[in-house]
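Our consortium's second objective concerns turning raw sequence data into structural hypotheses that experimental partners can test. To show how far this objective has progressed, the report includes one record in full. It was chosen at random from the queue rather than selected for favorable results. The single chain below, 342 residues long, was entered without modification.
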Amino acid sequence: MSKITYENAGVNIQAGNEVVRRIKNMVKTTFNSNVLSNLGGFAGMIDLKSVIQNYQHPVLVQSIDGVGTKTIIARMMHKYDTLGIDLLSASSNDILVTGATPLTLLDYIATDNLHPEIIEEIVKGMVKACCDNDMALVGGETAEMPDTYLKGEHDLVGIVTGVVEKNKIIDGSKIKEGDAIVGFPSSGLHTNGYSLARKLFFDVGGFNVESVLPEFKQTLGEVLLTPHINYAKPILSAIKNGIEIKGMAHITGGGLLENIPRVLPKICDAEIDLSAWETPEIFNVLEKLGNLDQHDLYTTFNMGIGLVAILDEENAEKLINKTQNLIKIGKIVSGTQKVKLK
């Protein structure tokens, strides 16, 4: 009887070793003096002593998220270098809305069959995003699981950990009637709504990733791979400069209609002025392809607003004057924790 090995079963240990060899030096460029572990160990270790010495009551804040079916577009394009940026931005923005400073990214990449060159490309994106945002890429796991994933599939998940002073946590509790709602423009779909977008573009519209629609200057694939924006720098800069932000919402799956209520007091509504900003063309195209109504659009897509901040009028003006491209998109009114589109 012939010997059956792990590799015969579909798992290539040598490919895993090759992945580590390819990414090890890249990942090290994100390390700072607080990182105690090395790539290839069983766990990531961070020395918190110097991190928390500037806090009276430090609170760790964590969020886990994935890139979702945007990975399918990457596979269709044979282009994976932006997925790591998406991964960091998605989770970083989720903890950012509490006022936390992101510190580390812990990643998980799973696939049916390890291709070291693809993993290297994904990690390049993570490394770039970490370096751009003073974060360390720690630990991580690469898993090869034939039959769990279809041929060529990748699953990409990340945990971002940050820290915030307990008495400075932003939770929406101070929001009141008359406060302004400021919108941070998105770069497109970000990482949500791709299941519907793919169906509309490829099944309904009959396009492919190489199609060039008259509304876009790039191919459809390039448009769909536009990276998710990370809003950490302008938000943290505003907080550092004494601009009081009462509440924030990262506009992910659920859109403006479902995400803003998560930070509203029960006696408040958010009134959004849809004429305040120009909706990016990608959403207009999707609306026409799917004959989508307003509710569908604003609960599936971000519609051009990737994050909202709620402040009193004075601080809203300061934030808008300090940060490029921000838009006042509405105000807080009395109500029952809902979003009204006008």
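The partners drew two points from this record. The longest strand covers residues 154-165. The chain has two domains: 13-168, 180-341. Both points have been shared with the crystallography group to help prioritize constructs.
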